[in-house]
Hints:
Elements: E1 2-6, H1 9-26, E2 31-34, H2 41-53, E3 62-65, E4 67-69, H3 80-92, E5 99-100, H4 109-122, E6 128-131, E7 153-156, H5 159-165, E8 179-182, H6 185-188, E9 193-198, H7 204-212, E10 230-235
Parallel strand pairs: 1-10, 2-3, 2-6, 3-5, 6-9, 9-10
Antiparallel strand pairs: 4-8, 7-8
Bound molecules: 2-amino-2-deoxy-6-O-phosphono-alpha-D-glucopyranose (GLP).
2-amino-2-deoxy-6-O-phosphono-alpha-D-glucopyranose binds at residues 35-39, 66-67, 132-134, 140-141, 161, 165.
Amino acid sequence: MEVVIVPDAEAGGALIAEAMAELFRRKPEALLGVATGSTPLPIYTALARQVRSGAVDASRARVAQLDEYVGLPAEHPESYRSVLRREVLEPLGLGLDAFMGPDGTAEDVAGACEAYDRALTEAGGVDLQLLGIGTDGHIGFNEPCSSLASRTRIKTLTEQTRIDNARFFDGDIEQVPHHVITQGIGTILEARHLVLLATGEGKADAVAATVEGPVAAVCPASALQLHPHATVVVDEGAASKL
Ligand code: GLP
């Protein structure tokens, strides 16, 4: 695992956007796995700037979703499909035809999870999977004690994650769904390159457990230690307990 310490979130965003741009130059039809949350926003801003300036052509890129709330209509502004459309697809000039994600409104949620897991493999696999990290060490929505071999499946959110995510729902935890679909840790580990960005002191404990702790299901992100090509980018705050 490679750990890169950058001065701030903006520098982390620029660094990872450049890695994505390089990927698109090498493989224009690359499948980029994207994450939601506040942390990746500087990456998407920097990448969109590169696309607008003509420094990179992302017109053939494909984008894959990491996780999704169960039960939120796709057009709900906080469904991750809507969020990614707003924050990634539109700024990169891509349409929904370039996008793949699980159906959080399917009647057969388990079937939708299996179908999405299979679709990722059939699409040739994810080239670069971007990850954030929860304060409890979760990646995607794989909460602590998720199996390190897990596949895409339905999960129940912990109270802490619902509290953390209430800020996207007018601060009202009651509006945060209880259930989600997430790529499993085993699924995530199949991506060719994993890139985790963590910023701020609030992530320092989770980052220390990820990088220096044992590989253990209590810290799902520690599974990155098992991957042959994993990069952890942290600002000084998130690195403060290393
Ligand atoms: C959610 C997402 C994760 C993300 C995490 C951290 O739980 N499912 O993919 O990494 O939030 O979000 P933030 O970057 O806003 O701290």
